Amino acid sequence: MLRLKNSKPGKFKPPKRAQNPVVKFIRNTVISVTVLLVLFIGGAILYTWYMGQHATTETAASAPVTDSHPILHPTQPKPDAVVGAAVQFITSPVAPGSNMSMTIHTNPAAKCTIAVQYGDTKSKDSGLMAKVADEYGLVSWTWTVDQAAPLGKGVATATCANIKNSGMVEGNFVIAKTTAAN
Fold it and tell me: Quick check: pTM over 0.70?
């Protein structure tokens, strides 16, 4: 029988090797990352399986399909609510003899009047009549600027009222000579 020096029968000890600490660190890091990756992937697979078992599915018959958007209806304020007014649009600059318009936002169903002033001259155009705001609170006027309106600043004043309250807004505009575009 062949026997190694300094060894007892039945017990074999491999010779000890000195390990480099860098190699040991890299080996432990690779093992740790591998274990974490396996746990993460396993958890993801289990989560996906569980959610697939407990997911609610809707069929085409259970969810009606509509081609139109829901219709939103504005709310109506109380008849004696506080009235506010704001200019939404006004034409400016505008030339004498041209059409201009102004749109305001106020309370729905408010009764509104408009007065237009060019310098010291008040406009008497037929488009400047009293109107009632629509269900969204919008009111628009269109009129023709007087041919004799002086160049410079003009003011359109709209007043809207309900039973007890009123609100006023001024829209400033400029009257200027304009040249035709070529």
Answer: no
